[in-house]
Amino acid sequence: MYKLLIRPILFQFDPEKVHYFTFSIIKFLNKIPGASAITRAIYCLDNKKLGREVFGLKFKNPVGLAAGFDKDAKLYNELHNFGFGFVEIGTLTPKGQPGNPKKRLFRLKSDKAIINRMGFNNGGVQEAVDRLKKNKGVLIGGNIGKNKNTPNENAVDDYKICFEALYPYVDYFVVNVSSPNTPNLRELQDKEPLTKLLQTLQEINRGKEKTKPILLKIAPDLTNNQLLDIIAIVNETKIAGVIATNTTISREGLASENKKENGGLSGVPLARRATEVIRFLSEKSNKSFPIIGVGGIHSAKDALEKLDAGASLVQIYTGFIYEGPSLVKKINKTILKS
């Protein structure tokens, strides 16, 4: 029904406006008595065999919602009803910021892809914290970044602020230094600044009564030598794992008219490269740390490819938009059969 009826209507309108319209509809429907239970009955697949224990956390199933969809933690409880094993909120920054000028979100229908240059638009970490206090048992990842106007030499301070604010309310952290839409952010992926950033957060983490997993989200555009650096950094800083991958700046093989828009590309064209990165990290590290696989998952087959390449968990975003909420259940059903 989604692909035949709902998606064609939604795709007639501006994608960013549709995003917020859909949020309001989901929020409204879930206020109707019994609606949440009906949604769960349709989309959730509860089976103990789907359970996973990764970096010390117990996941009901291995399919999560990637960061960027619910940036401000406004809808994580309702989105969880579609069967996700976990929801990652953010990217959050210390101060609220509007992001880049509109128009900044583009569908590439012929390629089953999206280009975004949102620029970490969010209301600030404290607003998200206030909403996370209403969590009804959802396993939450907190994706954190720096404000656009914060120079890279002071970036560590922004990540520290977000870490401290979110610590009581999220189950794991994701350090985002790989978005292409914040000026100079990807420079923080270089070995020296990245090691310093992760070590600083780990020092804060170890000072807590209970440490929480810290993951690093990396770009798919890194070279093999850079990926080897990532493995070395993970082992040196002893963070919990890696999310592979963020969006790409590559435009190879695209057919859509708006393929030249600036920003990060997600969706089907990213699938192969994301899987290559997962396999490389898994093999070259001798599976020494968990990987969350994300990028171009539009079918159960796509998800299995990520898991077979070495991912412990997977996340979807663009596939959720193109294929609809039934994708989560389809993936979990196929995992049970595999």
Automatic annotation (TrEMBL):
Return the cofactor note field: Binds 1 FMN per subunit.
| Residue ranges crossing the lipid bilayer per the database entry | none
Residues where FMN binds: A67, G68, F69, D70, K71, T91, N143, N176, K217, T245, G267, G296, Y317, T318
Q: Which reaction does it catalyse?
A: (S)-dihydroorotate + a quinone = orotate + a quinol
Which InterPro entries does the record match to this protein? Aldolase_TIM, DHO_dehydrogenase, Dihydroorotate_DH_1_2, Dihydroorotate_DH_2, Dihydroorotate_DH_cat, Dihydroorotate_DH_CS
The Dihydroorotate dehydrogenase catalytic domain sits at 51-336
Name the Enzyme Commission number(s) assigned to this protein. Answer: 1.3.5.2
Q: Which UniProt keywords apply?
A: Cell membrane, Flavoprotein, FMN, Membrane, Oxidoreductase, Pyrimidine biosynthesis
Residues given in the record as substrate binding sites:
K71, N116, R117, M118, G119, F120, N176, N181, N246, T247
Q: Name one Pfam family in it.
A: DHO_dh
Cofactor(s) the protein requires to work = FMN
Specify the domain of life of the species encoding this protein.
Answer: Bacteria
Pathway involvement?
Pyrimidine metabolism; UMP biosynthesis via de novo pathway; orotate from (S)-dihydroorotate (quinone route): step 1/1
Cellular localization per UniProt: Cell membrane; Membrane
Q: Which NCBIfam families does the record match to this protein?
A: PRK05286.1-2, PRK05286.2-5, pyrD_sub2
Q: What is this protein called?
A: Dihydroorotate dehydrogenase (quinone)
In its UniProt entry, the species of origin is given as Galbibacter pacificus
